[in-house]
Amino acid sequence: MKATLILGNGAVFHGQSIGATGDRVCEMVFNTSMTGYQEILTDPSYAGQGIVMSYPLIGNYGVNGADNESARPWAEAFVVRHLARRGSNFRCEGDLDTYLKQHNITGIEGVDTRAITRILRNQGTMNGMITCAEDFCIEDCLSKIRAYRVEGTVERVTRKAPQVCPAHGVQKLRVALMDYGVKENMIRCLQERGCQVTVYPAHTPAETVLEGNFDGVMLSNGPGDPADNVAIIAEVRKLYDSGLPIFAVCLGHQLMALATGAATRKMRFGHRGANHPVKDLAAGRVFITSQNHGYVVTAESVDPAVAQVSHVNVNEGSVEGLRYQNGNVCTVQFHPEASPGPQDTEYLFDRFVSKMEGGAW
């Protein structure tokens, strides 16, 4: 079946339908990862978005239950150059096209994904639409595209009730994790370090968390504009004032910055991929990181009496981490839990454990 991708700037790309066949409008973003498409699809931070994979061959090792980063895929649409019809890997349990159909994800293949990536990189992230109709009206499609907004996504992806995840091996610590759209490997990274993790829904009051007498708090990744989460930001401020050790990642990093007086802005096209270089300023060392975000904390808005920039993006100098002057809070924009991506920065979980045990970051 034929399919068409229409971008908000009027660009039209013709290809073949994959996955579900219904019309789908969403925010189109690109990802530069060569592998990890299943982890990308199931990352809750992609709620409301369609993903353009710049690497040309996708689906070549199939799908399997172990690679899911949440209970279901959250991406709205999937755009690839070529979709492998058969997975070739000993872990393969099924093919990607069937997986997309099962989860009602609309897709298109046979389009020039690198040309699409260049448009999104040069002109900025924009909305788009995938349709399988052959007689569509371009003006009607553009009207729907321009009216679309990514909103209410944290409420969509967060857990509805607390969940206790036991430590792997001997339990040493208890961590409260605020689920704004958490990836499963973030929980596993804590469990593997002897932490029992209690995962709370996003809108859980800070008082409920503090009554649990936890050794530390983690603020997870998640989708959407951080500034939209006004009520959550107020609760994050209470957690900051509690003095507990706090480690925050991605959206959690942005929410903590907003809670302490800094500002965020939308990036032109964001960072999405498993190959982004980040410099740890204290260590004087560059790490390759996995990233997925379209907003960033503005450096000039950070009060030096509150926090200092600890990590920066090597490519364009944006803020990738903050170390707070109270000594209890460390936040990063990238994903130390990876999945997909390099595990170079997993050492940050060790530092969080050290802090909870009375040591330093």
UniProtKB/TrEMBL annotation:
Keyword ATP-binding in annotation: yes
Top EC class of this enzyme: ligase
Keywords, sorted A to Z: Amino-acid biosynthesis, Arginine biosynthesis, ATP-binding, Glutamine amidotransferase, Ligase, Nucleotide-binding, Pyrimidine biosynthesis
Catalytic activity as recorded in UniProt: L-glutamine + H2O = L-glutamate + NH4(+); hydrogencarbonate + L-glutamine + 2 ATP + H2O = carbamoyl phosphate + L-glutamate + 2 ADP + phosphate + 2 H(+)
InterPro entries for the chain: Anth_synth/Amidotransfase, CarbamoylP_synth_ssu, CarbamoylP_synth_ssu_N, CarbP_synth_ssu_N_sf, Class_I_gatase-like, CPSase_GATase1, GATASE
Active-site residues per Swiss-Prot or TrEMBL entry: 250, 335, 337
Quaternary structure note: Composed of two chains; the small (or glutamine) chain promotes the hydrolysis of glutamine to ammonia, which is used by the large (or ammonia) chain to synthesize carbamoyl phosphate. Tetramer of heterodimers (alpha,beta)4.
Family per record: Belongs to the CarA family.
Protein name from the UniProt record: Carbamoyl phosphate synthase small chain
Organism whose genome encodes this protein: Intestinimonas massiliensis (ex Afouda et al. 2020)
